[in-house]
Amino acid sequence: MKNLKRFKRKRKPNQDNWFSCTKGHFGDEGFYGLYPLSVRDAFLCDFKQFDAWVILDSLGLSAVKILDTREFPVLFVNIRDGDAPTKEEVDRIIDFAENYDKVLISCIGAHGRTGTILAIWIHLKDPTQEDPILRVRRVYCKKAVETMKQAEFIYDYLGLKPNKEVLKDFQIRRFNLWFGDSWDSWDRSW
Ligand SMILES: [Zn+2]
C-alpha cells in the first residue's frame, strides 16, 4: 500500500488524460525539417508546402488521397501502435528525410511513433546534454513518446544511458491506466 500512495502523490494536479492533446498537429511546426502531422488532422494540412511524407501507420495511407496529383514522395514504414521501430527502420527514415527540405511525419496522434522518431532526429541534428525524451516533450508536445518500449529504444538507438526518472514516469502512467478514475475515488476514501 505504501508504494501505491507514493504513485498517487506523484500525479500532477488537474492532469488531463495523457492520450488527449489540446493542440492539433497538422504540420504547423517543424524541427530541423521534420514536421509532425497527426493523421486525424491531415485535412488541416497544406500539403503544397511540403516535399515528402513519412507514414508510420497504415491509416495514414488512406489520407494520401487528399493529396494533389503532383509527385509527392512517400515512405511507408508500418509500426504498430505503441511499438518502437527497428534500428534499420530509423536509419531508413533518416536517410529518406535528409533528401528533402520539409518532410511530414505521421502516425495516428503524432505522439508515440512520430514522437519517438522526432526525439531521435532532434538529438542527432543538435546534440545537447538534455534528455532526448524530455526535450521532445518540451519543444514539441508533452504527449510525445508514449510507451516504455519507445523510450528504451530511443536511449538504445542514441547510445545514451537510460534516464531512470523518465522511465519511471511510464510505470506511473501504466498504473494510472489500469486503475483510471476508480483509483482516484478509491484513494480519496482510503
Ligand atoms: Zn500533441
Short synopsis of the structure:
The protein is of the alpha/beta class and 190 residues long. The protein contains seven helices and four strands. It is globular and about 45 Å long.
Which keywords apply here?
binds zinc ion, alpha/beta
How are the secondary structure elements laid out?
Blueprint lengths: L1 H9 L23 E5 L13 E4 L2 H6 L10 E3 L10 H11 L5 E5 L5 H13 L6 H8 L8 H11 L5 H25 L2
Helix pairs in contact: 1-7, 4-5, 4-6
Report on the architecture of this protein.
- This protein has 190 residues and is of the alpha/beta class.
- It has seven helices and four strands, in the order αββαβαβαααα.
- A four-stranded parallel β-sheet has the order 1-4-2-3.
- Helix 4 crosses helix 5 (132-139).
Q: What order do the SSEs take from the amino end to the carboxyl end, as H and E?
A: HEEHEHEHHHH
Strand elements, count: 4
The assembly state of the depicted protein chains is single chain
Attached small molecules: zinc ion
Output the number of helix runs. 7
Report mean pLDDT, rounded to a whole number: 84
Global structural class: alpha/beta
In terms of per-residue confidence, which ranges show pLDDT below 50 for 5 or more consecutive residues? 4-18, 181-190
Sheet of most strands: 4 strands, parallel
Q: What gross morphology would you assign? A: globular
Helix percentage range = 40-55%
